[in-house]
Amino acid sequence: MLINKSTKIEAGDIITLKLANGDEIVGELVSESDYGFLLNRPMAAVMTGQGLGLMQAMFSVDPKGKYEISKNHVMMHGQTFDTVKKHYLSSVSDIAVLTKGDFRH
Q1: Torsions phi, psi of 70, nearest 5?
Q2: What's the DSSP call for residue 99?
Q3: Least confidently predicted of 11-25, 27-41, 91-105
Q4: What pLDDT shows up at residue 105?
Q5: pLDDT at residue 74 above 70?
Q6: Which of 32, 45, 74, 103 is positioned for an S-S bond with 24, CB 3.0–4.6 A?
Q7: Which residues contact 97 (CB under 8 A, 6 or more apart)?
Q8: 39 touches 54 (CB < 8 A)
Q9: CB 2 within 8 A of CB 75
């Protein structure tokens, strides 16, 4: 696993995990242990015809659950880029995340 020492991740952060199979998982970090990352509402990053999108990481479980991803399968991890973080937050809640310039008359 590639260790990013420049950015510390903490509980409550929205992080991205790059898995050994190529999947990219975005979720809210609940905790990190020697074994893995416990994520709240993990979502998979997917490319669509309109750019990057997020979809439920697993379809046969509660999408609002917390799930642990083993560090044995994580190649890289780090803070999620702001644009993707906003998309994640709006995908998992009913609250739209707006920034200056997003509001149109």
Answers
A1: -65, 135
A2: -
A3: 91-105
A4: 46
A5: yes
A6: 45
A7: 86, 89, 90
A8: no
A9: yes
What gap in Å lies between CA 56 and CA 45, rounded to an integer? 9
As given in the structure block, the two tokens for residue 47 are 């490319």
Looking up tokens 């906003």 gives: 86
Compute the distance between CA of residue 77 and CA of residue 15 in angstroms, rounded to an integer. Answer: 7
Q: Classify residue 60 as left (phi > 0), alpha (psi -120 to 50) or beta.
A: alpha
How far is 32 from 105, CA to CA, in rounded Å?
Answer: 43
42-66 burial code (b ≥16 CB/10 A, e <16): bbbbeeeeeeeebeebeeeeeeeee
Q: What DSSP state is assigned to residue 52?
A: E
Which one of 2.30.30.100, 3.20.20.450, 1.10.10.10, 3.40.50.360 gives the CATH number of domain 14-92? 2.30.30.100
pLDDT of residue 101: 61
Tokens 């709240």 identify what position?
40
